[in-house]
Design brief:
16% of the residues are buried. The chain starts with 23 loop residues before the first strand and ends with a strand. The radius of gyration is 25 Å and the shape is elongated. Strand 6 (76-83) and strand 7 form a beta hairpin. It has strands at residues 24-26, 29-31, 36-37, 43-44, 49-59, 76-83, 86-89, 95-96, 104-113, 120-126, 135-141, 153-162. The strands form 4 sheets. Strands 6, 7, 8, 10 and 11 form a 5-stranded antiparallel beta sheet that branches. It is an all-beta fold. It folds into 2 domains: 13-45, Laminin; 49-162, Sandwich (Immunoglobulin-like).
Length: 163
Amino acid sequence: MFSFGLLSCLKDSCENNFCDNNGVCVDGTCDCPENYTGAHCQEQMTPSKMRVTAVTMTRFPATNEGTSWDEGDGPDIFFKMSEEVLPLAQPEYLIENPDPLKSYTFFIHPFDLRFVTAPYKMEMFDWDGPGTDPQNFPAHWDPKLRIPRGQVVAAASIVSPKY
């Protein structure tokens, strides 16, 4: 009587399956973290809308083309955010004499961005008081978290994206 012994090497099904963005391989398939998809968790899901609750001005020019923003002190800053021509947000207050090396947060009435991949216009202003026109230092904010164009950098605080 003959007896056969069959030896096999069980191969790890996750050995050559690499999961991106902190995904975990389970039985040869990537288990992706929240907001990521794809065979290797390589695709970030785009939310259908985002709620904006605050805007933070992270830096701005110390001078207005080489001259002081205001006589004797710094600018008095505020912003306006719009979607093409549709106004979206503007704070009810301004920040007086800010330090251009510090960040300043404007808390606003929350609103939803409906087109999350579209660029939005963000205008930053220096206001010198009644009877004067605000001086503009424009910036554009892109919700895809790219660096805004222009000298002014602003970031929006976004909560509860909807997928």
